[in-house]
């Protein structure tokens, strides 16, 4: 049986540290660590990779623990149709941020001319949100160009795509985007403040 989860780095270190030196194998390859234990196999993918390659005939855990403990400078852009948040974390400390909201009407289910008016009004509200979010993201994140290790994107995928496409000053963020997309609720300051737990959580797969 296989189970996949994301586990916060502190909880994961507590679980993995006692395994060091035990019977089994450890394989470090392409940013992924595979630990073959006597009764199960654990596959761990730290969010920022592992700068180590090797195969061992015992459970060698130190390079993985070091990768989990390492802090990074990470840009964040969270967008949903209704709000946005842009920020920069150094380790788990939020050192720059801007959170904002714009009202966007919900879907209109009826037809006719009133539906068309509603649709045009909603589209205008969406454009306003995208423009404001893109401008604030550029203001907050542009000073960090060349200084970020990675960028975390989250919220609604289409809304994030539209914001990134709205300004050329944001093009540099795309190659730095983490593989994981953070499906957070409507971006608020509280959501931004709580993001580091997920930001540093590693993908954890247990088989057996």
Account of the 3D structure:
- The chain is an alpha+beta fold and 208 residues long.
- The chain folds into two domains: 2-70, no CATH class; 73-198, eRF1 domain 2 (Nucleotidyltransferase, domain 5, 2-Layer Sandwich), CATH 3.30.420.60.
- The chain has five helices and ten strands, in the order βαββββαβββαβααβ.
- It has helices at 9-16, 62-69, 113-141, 157-166, 189-199; strands spanning 2-7, 25-29, 32-36, 41-45, 54-56, 73-80, 83-90, 93-101, 150-155, 202-207.
- A hairpin with a 2-residue loop joins strand 6 and strand 7 (83-90).
- Helix 3 (113-141) crosses helix 4 (157-166).
- The protein is elongated, with a radius of gyration of 21 Å.
- The N and C termini lie close together (5 Å).
- The mean pLDDT is 90.
């Amino acid at each position: 049986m296989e189970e996949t989860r994301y586990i916060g780095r502190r909880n994961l270190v507590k679980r993995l540290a006692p395994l060091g030196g035990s019977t089994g194998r450890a394989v470090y390859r392409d940013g992924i660590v595979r630990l073959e234990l006597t009764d199960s196999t654990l596959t761990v993918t730290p969010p920022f990779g592992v700068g180590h390659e090797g195969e061992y005939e015992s459970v060698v855990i130190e390079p993985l623990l070091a990768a989990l403990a390492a802090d990074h400078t990470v840009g964040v852009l969270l967008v949903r149709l209704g709000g946005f948040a842009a920020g920069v974390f150094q380790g788990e400390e939020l050192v720059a941020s801007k959170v904002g909201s714009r009202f966007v009407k919900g879907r209109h289910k009826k037809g006719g001319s009133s539906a068309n008016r509603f649709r045009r009004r909603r589209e205008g509200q969406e454009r306003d949100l995208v423009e404001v979010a893109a401008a604030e993201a550029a203001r907050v994140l542009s000073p960090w160009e060349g200084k970020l290790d990675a960028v975390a994107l989250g919220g609604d995928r289409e809304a994030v795509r539209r914001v990134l496409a709205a300004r050329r000053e944001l093009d540099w963020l795309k190659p730095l985007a983490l593989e994981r997309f953070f499906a957070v609720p409507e971006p608020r300051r509280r959501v931004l403040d709580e993001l580091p737990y997920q930001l540093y959580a590693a993908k954890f797969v247990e088989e057996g």
